[in-house]
Specification:
By secondary structure, this protein is of the alpha/beta class. Among the domains are: 76 residues, Vaccinia Virus protein VP39 (Rossmann fold, 3-Layer(aba) Sandwich), CATH 3.40.50.150; 39 residues, no CATH class. A seven-stranded mixed beta sheet has the order 3-2-1-4-5-7-6, sandwiched between helices. The longest helix is centred in the middle third of the chain and has 14 residues. The chain starts with 10 loop residues before the first helix and ends with a strand. It binds S-adenosylmethionine. The site of S-adenosylmethionine has 22 residues, from α3 and β2. S-adenosylmethionine (SAM) binds next to α3 and β2.
Length: 183
């Protein structure tokens, strides 16, 4: 595992029951709704994948992708416990390639873009995975990413064909919602 990637055990520091106070389900409204297919890239232990699976309901589907098998294993255990494992597909990707060909309506990259080795290449792939007018919620942690660095990431996103449509307020995060432009 590359040095810049969050070790699986560190995720317990922020992915614990207290997180529900700060990172609430309504942060996805109105971008994620019943019946949608969505991807959670750099899903970690699955806090958001499980939230998202509840929102999309039985008719929807979540693809949860990470570079660490440990993260995916913990996510699967949690999803089974929550009774929604049948709505979540996990996929072990590598650092350079997301590796998903299916088109999705919504993508989440939460506190993970700064860990990728090449943000431009990564954002190109996210753009490609999204279907027409699909949306991306991109959140970066304020403790690791300065506002200037976040603005650079947004410029790269615009370069690959995203349009910024919103700046939702999410605790401890620089956040933007971007819409796919073009085909
Ligand atoms: C800080 S954790 C955030 C986890 C999760 N999004 C959350 O908010 O609970 C970052 C996650 O991104 C994953 N990651 C890092 N680089 C990645 C890459 N190139 N592709 C996919 N996942 C990656 C890490 O393994 C880790 O699980």
């Amino acid at each position: 595992m590359a040095k810049h990637v969050c070790p699986w055990w560190v995720a317990y520091i922020f992915d614990n029951p207290l997180r529900q106070i700060f990172h609430k389900l309504d942060m996805f409204s109105p971008y994620l709704t019943d019946g949608m297919t969505a991807i959670d890239i750099g899903c970690g232990m699955g806090y958001f994948s499980i939230c998202m699976a509840r929102i999309v309901g039985e008719a929807g589907k979540i693809i949860s992708v990470d570079v660490q098998q440990n993260m995916l294993d913990i996510l699967t255990k949690r999803a089974k416990k929550a009774g929604i494992a049948d709505r979540i597909t996990t996929f072990l990707c590598d650092e350079q390639h997301i590796g998903i060909n299916e088109k999705v309506d919504f993508a989440l990259t939460f506190w993970m873009v700064h860990e990728t080795p090449d943000e431009l290449n990564f954002l190109k792939q996210v753009h490609c995975i999204l279907g027409k007018s699909g949306t991306l919620l991109l959140a970066e942690p304020k403790m690791h990413v300065t506002f200037t660095e976040f603005k650079k990431t947004l410029s790269l996103a615009q370069e690959v064909g995203f349009k910024i449509i919103d700046f939702p307020k999410i605790f401890f995060s620089h956040t933007a919602v971007l819409e796919k432009q073009g085909c």
